[in-house]
Inverse folding.
């Protein structure tokens, strides 16, 4: 963007800079901190966000950053869903919102809600938004995504192994995927790693070295 006198602007593209940056990142990992080596004061990897079930008393969080099992470097991401987490009662999201309003005294207490607790909010995942410039590099291009996985215990339920009634094979965690559509009008992309799925049994999984690259050739 070039500013002229007054309040007028014109857009220009530097072809030399565009070619240079395209070549620079042609073989680069477009995931920031995909090896989880850099972490902030909360001991969670920089650039990454997490979502996980509520933590029962005397239990640790499902998602952590250990140093005992890694493929390279010193850290990986650990998804450790214990039996206590699986058995802990929880609410549907709408019920949680209603419960909060009840606790604030804004609506009467619903006795039916208080007995509608269900076990098993077990989903956990981490994610990050891809740099906007990298999104332009990925536009209409073939990509490769990968990760290193070490499974102590995945403990899949039997109905997962059977697939669905239509014969589809379920995608068991851990899964790595992009969301949003890669097109000329894309506003952004997010890469997500699912650690434990819905209604999971106890799981113990380590993931390291998440990568997103342009496909060679």
């Amino acid at each position: 963007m070039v500013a002229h006198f007054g309040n007028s602007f014109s857009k220009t593209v530097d072809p030399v800079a565009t070619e240079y940056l395209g070549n620079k990142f042609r073989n680069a990992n477009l995931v920031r901190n995909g090896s989880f080596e850099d972490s902030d004061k909360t001991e969670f990897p920089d650039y990454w966000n997490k979502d996980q079930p509520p933590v029962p008393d005397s239990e640790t969080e499902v998602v952590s950053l250990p140093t005992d099992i890694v493929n390279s470097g010193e850290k990986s991401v650990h998804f450790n869903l214990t039996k206590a987490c699986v058995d802990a009662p929880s609410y549907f999201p709408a019920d949680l919102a209603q419960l909060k309003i009840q606790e604030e005294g804004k609506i009467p207490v619903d006795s039916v809600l208080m007995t509608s607790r269900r076990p098993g909010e077990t989903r956990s995942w981490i994610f990050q938004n891809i740099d906007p410039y990298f999104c332009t590099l990925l536009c209409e291009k073939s990509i490769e995504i990968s990760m290193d996985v070490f499974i102590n215990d995945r403990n899949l339920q039997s109905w997962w192994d059977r697939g669905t009634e239509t014969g589809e094979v379920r995608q068991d965690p851990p899964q790595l995927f992009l969301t949003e559509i890669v097109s000329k009008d894309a506003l952004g992309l997010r890469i997500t790693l699912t650690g434990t799925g819905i209604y999971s049994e106890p799981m113990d999984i380590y993931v390291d070295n998440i990568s997103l690259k342009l496909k060679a050739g």
Remarks:
- The longest helix spans residues 93-103.
- Residues 6 and 201 are 64 Å apart (CA to CA).
- The first strand starts at residue 2 and ends at 3.
- The radius of gyration is 22 Å.
